[in-house]
Structures are given as C-alpha cells and as structure tokens.
C-alpha cells in the first residue's frame, strides 16, 4: 500500500485537483482578455464603419458641389461668350458708323475744297473774260 500512497487517487486527492484548478484559474484572465479584445474590435469596426459613411457622405457632398460649380462656370462661360459676341457686333457697328461719318466728313471737306477751287477758278475766268472784253473794247 505504500505504492498506493504515492499514486494520487482519482477522487478528491489534493495533488491531482490542484493543477486542474490552477488551469481553470489561469484560463479566466485569458477569457476576460479575449472578451475585452472582442469588445474593442467591435468598437473599432463600428468606428471604421462610421468613418466610411462619413467619407462617402463627404464625397457625395463634394461631388455635388463640384457639379454645381461646373454648371455655374458653364453658364458663366456661355453668358460671357454671348456678351463678347454682342460687344463684337456693337464694335463692328460702331466702326462702320464711324467710317461712314469719316467718309461723309471727308466728302464734305472735298466738296467745300472743290467749291472753293471752282469759285476761284470761275472768278479768275470771269476776270480774264472781263479783262479780255476791256482790252477788246479798248482796241476797237
């Protein structure tokens, strides 16, 4: 029986039950850590989902703003093009009007200059005729 004392009994021997008890006690902190890590992981995944949603919302808003600005710029470009076209037409019309006025003034000045020349020529011709008449009257 001396050998029986050396082998622990299966029922309630302190030497045998102690390692199982210690093993369960050692497992508890590990299980707590696993639970804590799972909870932390869940929180992180939730925050990540929230950040993804925020990013998608931000992109959607940004895309909307970019489209709005592009549309506004396109409208402004069209309006500017239209105004430039109108200004070009107005300047062409003004140029034509100024050219016509310049031509009219030049024609009026030519007419005045010719009239003055013509009158001088007529006066000179009349004087010559008068002088010739006087000379012919003197000769007769």
Describe what you observe in this structure.
- It comes from Rhynchospora pubera.
- The protein has 2 helices and no strands.
- By secondary structure, it is an all-alpha fold.
- The N terminus is likely disordered.
- The radius of gyration is 59 Å and the shape is rod-shaped.
- It has one domain.
- It starts with a helix and ends with a helix.
Q: Layout of SSEs?
A:
Blueprint: H1 2-6, H2 14-139
Summary tags:
mainly alpha, disordered N terminus
The proportion of residues in beta strands is under 5%
Number of helices: 2
- The span between the termini is 199 Å
Number of strands: 0
Q: From N to C, what is the helix and strand string? A: HH
The major beta sheet can be summarized as: none
Estimated structural class: mainly alpha
Q: Please give the share of residues in helix.
A: over 70%
List low-pLDDT spans: 1-16
CA radius of gyration is: 59 Å
Quick synopsis:
It contains two helices and no strands. The protein is mostly helical.
